[in-house]
Amino acid sequence: MQYEIRQKEKFRYVEEGTGEPLVLLHGLFGALSNFSGLIEYFRFHNRVIVPLLPLLDMDILHTSVGGLAKYVNRFLETLDLREVHLLGNSLGGHVALVHTLKNPERVKSLILTGSSGLFENGMGDSYPRRGDYEYIKNKTALTFYDPAVATKELVDEVYSITNNRLKVIKIIALAKSAIRNNLGEELNQINKPTLLIWGNNDTITPPFVGHEFNKLIPNSELHFIDKCGHAPMMEVPDEFNKILHGFLNKLQHP
Question: Domains of the chain by range and CATH?
């Protein structure tokens, strides 16, 4: 799906539908395509908003989880968004957590899927090997239970990012920032209803990470999806949407 990219001040974003705001935060190699199944379903129920996070466009000093959380807060302020259902995948989940800890007043609920913040298997010390297409292809496929989800288009996207030296430096800076910024001690302060959706076959943030988040975040519920890797909303959108819709309905009609 092609979506119109809107702009307000320095912020670029996609917005579809009306209703309670559902804000989606993508991960390190994320793009709008990751969320198309979610946008298409929830645009009929919610005001779905996807900010284009400037992961690789911020100056190196602010290229961190904290820098991105501040960016998200300024974005929500600029669009005057309150009572937001904040959803993040992978690094986006980590950013959503930091934002919720620092600015809880704007968040109604938190949805995490394959989130970093406690533990993640990095891309390995040898990553990224520039110019090695086959290597990037295999690494991208590891994100999913079904390697076929790593389409040529997706691999090409990751490959082009990893072929740019400055972008690689920023990717490494963000990955290191995510590892340093461990939230284990702070998660008990989150009092928002929290939904955790995890792939049973996630190798990057394995199932035990989902259990750990569930244990540490007081008002949280955990759902596992079988035959699914690190990006459930992309790999099994129908099942993901069903779980999320049930959670949001419960909040509207307790």
Answer: 6-252 (3.40.50.1820)
